[in-house]
Write a structure and sequence with these properties.
The protein is an alpha+beta fold. The protein has one domain (15-266): Endonuclease/exonuclease/phosphatase (Deoxyribonuclease I, Chain A), CATH 3.60.10. The chain contains six helices and 14 strands.
Length: 279
């Protein structure tokens, strides 16, 4: 989601890198898909800046009442990068938003790297629910080959450290991790997320209305459809799933393709009868 203004410090207007602004038609299609899902909390990837997201929210999503717009400029907004960030829209009150863009972790070579975008941590306080810890990520693209896979694994290890620290303070924490992992369910990077010592995260399986599991379709025929977008929950949150699986919205494939090359994945959490106590 790029605006129509050129940022001289990023490659936000480079057609060669796929960063041209979305057309009004594509924005309208995206808004229709978002309205069909009608989520209380919406995680987004590849958003250029907060102002454009706020403009899109006001112009296209007015009836959804997303009163909270969260976007912190991350590592991809540096000079020469594409200028894409992770973001959040929410009806639920936001308590805080934390960027982990400056944390570092060593690659096998010893070189220390940061998240390629960020691991955005937003604490929300839904009425009648425990505090909700929502993490949004966008892992490096698979087009980067072996090096990108090493980066995805390294960023997963960095995320694991953050989650272990959170879980050590509150083992009953409601944690939701979502985004474009750019990897499949059995990949090394996803396995790290689902096998963190002391943090038993669970990947929630997701299906569309026809039982398909893909979330991404290549704009060309060069790649097969793939499952790259995932939702992971902590035990405390997963106990309150309304269904045993998440939903991939692909009810209108033509509209979905016009909106994005990724399909939305969503789940519903039911309100607990009483609020659980923290550790």
């Amino acid at each position: 989601m790029f605006d129509r203004y050129d940022d001289p410090y990023t490659e936000d207007s480079s057609a060669a890198r796929g960063t041209s602004p979305k057309s009004a038609r594509a924005l309208y299609a995206l808004a229709r898909v978002i309205k069909a899902v009608n989520a209380d909390i919406l995680l987004l990837q590849e958003v250029e800046n907060r102002n454009f997201l706020a403009e899109f929210n006001a112009a296209y999503l007015d009836g959804l009442k997303y009163t909270h717009v969260v976007l912190l400029e991350g590592n991809n907004s540096n000079i020469g990068d594409r200028g894409i960030d992770v973001a959040l829209l929410s009806r639920v009150p936001v308590f805080s938003a934390t960027s982990y863009q400056y944390l570092q972790h060593p690659l096998p070579s010893g070189t220390r790297v940061r998240f390629s975008r960020d691991f955005l941590h937003v604490r929300l306080r839904p009425e009648g629910f425990p505090e909700l810890h929502v993490f949004n990520l966008h892992a490096p693209s698979r087009l980067g080959g072996d090096y990108a896979e090493i980066r995805r694994v390294t960023e997963a290890k960095l995320a694991a450290q953050i989650l272990q620290d959170l879980f050590a303070h509150d083992s009953n924490a409601w944690i939701v991790i979502g985004g474009d992992f750019n990897d499949h369910e059995a990949s090394p990077s996803l396995t790290i997320f689902t096998s963190i010592p002391s943090v038993p995260l669970r990947r929630i399986p997701a299906f569309d209305a026809k039982g398909n599991t893909f979330t991404w379709i290549s704009p060309s025929s060069a790649f097969e459809p793939a499952t790259l977008d995932h939702l992971l929950l902590s035990p405390a949150a997963s106990r309150y799933l309304l269904q045993k699986h998440a939903v991939i919205w692909n009810d209108d494939p033509r509209l979905a393709a016009e909106a994005s090359d990724h399909r939305p994945v969503y789940l519903d959490l039911r309100r607990p009868a009483r609020l659980p106590l923290a550790k």
